[in-house]
Model the fold of this input.
Amino acid sequence: MEEPSELSPPNRYAIRESMPKDIVEEVHAILRARNGRVDMSPRLPLGSGGLGLDSIALVEVLVECEEVFGVTMAAEALAGSPLTVGSLIEALQARVRR
Amino acid sequence: MTGSRDHRRFDTPAKLLASVAASHPRAAFELAGRLGALRNRIRRRWPSAAEISALFSRLDRRTAASVAARAGALHERNRVLVHGIVRYGLDFLRPLVSASESFRAMSGPRIVATFHAGAVHAFGPALERMDAPVLAFRDGSLFASRGTVEIVSTKGGEQSRSAALHRALLHLRGGGVVFLALDVYQGEAIETQCLGRRLRLAPGAFALARWTGAPIQLAVARWEGHRVLIEAGACVTTAEAASFWLEAYLTGRPEEITLGLLRNLLEIS
Done:
């Protein structure tokens, strides 16, 4: 039987659900690719005063996360208090668990 | 150029005309146009012929003065229009606005983008009539209207701008239409050239198109007497193409330039 070269989206989804640590690492990797900063404290804002991402880059991060984790972020994801590394991970974990 | 205190004195006639715009739109807007042109010829500003010549160098002096007067007329009509919307909402405007067939035929997902040219504040009724739900980016509330048009404020910092952008992204994914003015930006902008000048455009529309594959359809609103015609322009994918289209449009109709766009191009604060 031919071995699958990569996991299909549902399997990938199941693995991520059981491994929240993976979400943290993936999010850190996505953010580091944009900023290069090594320290990714949960309280670090993605925008001004933190990673300094502009409005387009902030949405691009969400879009990239959606693609990587196979989820759709809610409209509220960016509404309200400034998005931090920790709040992004929490929002993603909540969507992945659904 | 502006002399804003001086300029504010002209609010009184604009407000007076706006007060009769609902009952006598023809008289109100035609009188506004005449008043604006007359004021322009007397004061030689808002805009001046020299400012028009600075952008449209091919125009001779007399033509530039005539274009300046017509741009002054446009400015006054738009002021009456804005005061009228503030006073009456869109009720009085709905019968005055019509859209070309190409505009009416638009469906979602689509980004409808305009510039501050012509009757830019008159898009509301045309947006209401679109088949797809519309999300309009707006600083204020001039487009506040029927339920099919949702308003997203672009005011605030990066976080609120990104929230508006994300909201627009979800709207396009749902098959909706996003409406915005390309020459309004806060924060980062894309620099292009228009009429030999630097024109900064909001990058959001182009990012949305990239993320969703939705086309960017340019559109303009133009006064025709006391009525407004909304027309679809080119479909573009880049900021340069959008600026190029605007340049061609304004070269053909220089009197459609608004003071805001003129100041933007001439970099007058």
